[in-house]
Structure formats: C-alpha cells, structure tokens
Amino acid sequence: MFRLALRVLVVLASLLALTLFATSARRYVPRGHTSDPFEQSILESSARFVRHEPMYVEPREGQPMLMPGFALCVAGIAGELPPELWQVRALALGATVLVAILIALIVQIECGSWTLAFAGGSLALLGQGFLAAPPGIARPEGLMLALVLLAVMTIRHIPGAIGAVLGAIPLAAAVFVEPQAVWFVIGAAASLALERSHRAAAFTLTVGLLVAAGYVASSRWLGPWFNFEAWDGPTQAMQLRALGPVRFIGDLLLRTLGVWMMAALLSFSMATEPWLGRSGIWMCMGISALVGGLVATQSRAFGAEAFLPSIVLVSLVGPLMIQRVTRHLAAWDDPDRPGGENVVLAAVLLQFAAILAAVPVDRWLPGVLGAWPGA
C-alpha cells in the first residue's frame, strides 16, 4: 500500500510538472515580440540566409555569439519567406519536448520502470523550462541536447564500429548548434576508449572529419565573420571568475539537484565503476555536462541558460544511479521489490520538491508569465 501511494504521488508530481510547463509555454510562445538578444540574433541570421546574404556580419556590441545550426533549421522551416518569431520558438519548444521524451525513453530502457521514466522526463522538462529559460524561448541548447541524446543512444545500442560511426554524425552536427556539444564529443570518445575496442578509433576519426569539414564549409559559405563567432569571440570572452563555479556547484548542483547528485556520488562506492561498460556512457555524458557548465561560468557572455546541459544530464543520470545504488544496497535484482523501489520513489519526490522550491513563485504560477525577462 505504501509503495502504491508513493507511485501515485510520483505520477501526480509528474503531471503537475507537465501542466506547469504546458501552461507557461502556451502563454509565452505565441507572443509576437521579443527583447531577448538570442532570439533577435537567430531571426536576423536566418533572415539573411533566406535572402541569400552572408549569415554572419560584423557583430554589434553585446550581441551573443551564435553557431549556425539553429538559424539554418529556422531558415529551412521558413523556406523562401522571412522567418517569424513563432517558428523560432516552436522549434525551440519542440526540441525541449523531444529531449524530455528521449530522457524518459532512456530511463525506461535502462531501468525497466515506466514510473521512473515518466518522472525522469517530467523532471527534465521542469528543469529545462524553469531553472534557466522560459519554456519555448529560442535557445540552441535544446536542439543540441536532442542531437546529443540521439547520438549517444545510437552508440549505446548499436554494436560495433557502425554504431560509433552513426552516433558520430548527430554529435558532429550538435557542435554546429551549440559549442558545449564539444564536451559531449570528448565524453563519448572517452567512454568508447574505456571499452578498449576499435569503436573508439572509428568514432574519433568520423567525428573529427565531420567537424573539420563542417568548419571549412561554414567558413567558406556563411560569411567571413563565421570564424569570429565560432572561435575568436568566445575565446576573447573567457575570463577568470572564481565565484562562478562555486555558485554552479553550491546552488544548482548541491541545492537544487542535490538528490540526484547524491545518488551519482554514491554510485562511485559500488564495486563496478559507473563509467564502465556500455551503460557507463551515460555517466561519462553527465561528467562532460558538468565540466561544460564549469567552463561556461568563466565567460563574460555567461547566462543561466548555459546550465541547461547540466540540468538535463543530471536529470538523466540521477534516476539511473539511484536505482543502481538501491539495488546494490538491497542486494535485489528485482526492481519491483518494495523496499528498494520505495527509496527510489521517495528520492524522486524529494527531487521534485527541491526543484519547485528553487523556482520563484512568479515563474511557475499560471498567469504571471510577464515576470519573465523579454515577455
């Protein structure tokens, strides 16, 4: 009876998260104006591409650095017509929802629990929509994360060199959507290297060739300022910010996502290292996301949206590790035995509570979306 009550509470919390996200997205996405610099930059870049003009021009003061992938997708949706704001936001919202679906699918495949999968996807959606940016705001991180998850699922489940090569394709594409994807490329390469197989060489060679070819093609076809946007600008924006990592670790990881972080930490005490084996690639991806978040805090262009990869990957790794730890401690192989599952479900509820407590009330109560910057 207690386990059933916990399951019901987890499902209700997941439905609450979905309702809050859908309500916020419905109120925000249709708005016909924006003051967000990223949305403006994406609209301008995609419009220039549609008009067959150079996508990149000399940047204005304070203009955000933008890789071409997201803007090219917007231009593809717009066709020959000028791109509109709703198209930009619809693409961002669709990518965010796809990421949550992929998280739920991965958790189901790895854990065999639909309840945990539903909760994992809902937590990922809640974290993406309320811990960094408003739901549906045009940011490239969602599309990048969708490509990364699809790539890693391919590497994880398709054996041999063919899986590594196929997985390298969307990962290389993700690099041209958002630069933090580079950390996931490194994480995937490290995970494959730990397998001590030819898959690592096939992956590294493929992704290296694709990124190099894409960089050369972009430099040639997207305007002379592409190199500045892709490399010079982000490099010049780097500076030492000692408090950035402290706030990232103390506020986001330990306070808001502390339940999942504790589960990941406890997994390091098990006899089998969590980064080894085929399933170990998810832990490598989680570590890569945290490294990317730490590095992002050292940029003058840093914003809370840079934490989106960390939020999503912790939302994925957390459920996987909490189940592994409880199975290990209880010495049970059956995930449906009551004791171990009770702990997992209670941890999920605590994580829901921690995220909701971290979000200011005016950001998730329906009807107050105007509190969002740029709304």
Q: Can you give me a brief rundown of this structure?
A:
The protein has 375 residues and is mainly α. Helices cover 71% and strands 0% of the residues.
Task: Explain how this protein is built.
With 375 residues, the chain is an all-alpha fold. It has one domain. It is 71% helix and 0% strand. It is built from 16 helices and no strands. The chain has helices at residues 2-28, 37-50, 68-78, 85-111, 114-130, 141-157, 160-175, 181-194, 199-221, 226-236, 243-256, 258-267, 281-296, 308-330, 338-358, 361-364. α4 (85-111) runs antiparallel to α5 (114-130), α8 (181-194) packs antiparallel against α13 and α14 runs antiparallel to α15. The longest helix is centred in the N-terminal third of the chain and has 27 residues, at 2-28. The chain starts with a helix and ends in an 11-residue tail after the last helix. Residues 366-375 have low confidence and may be disordered.
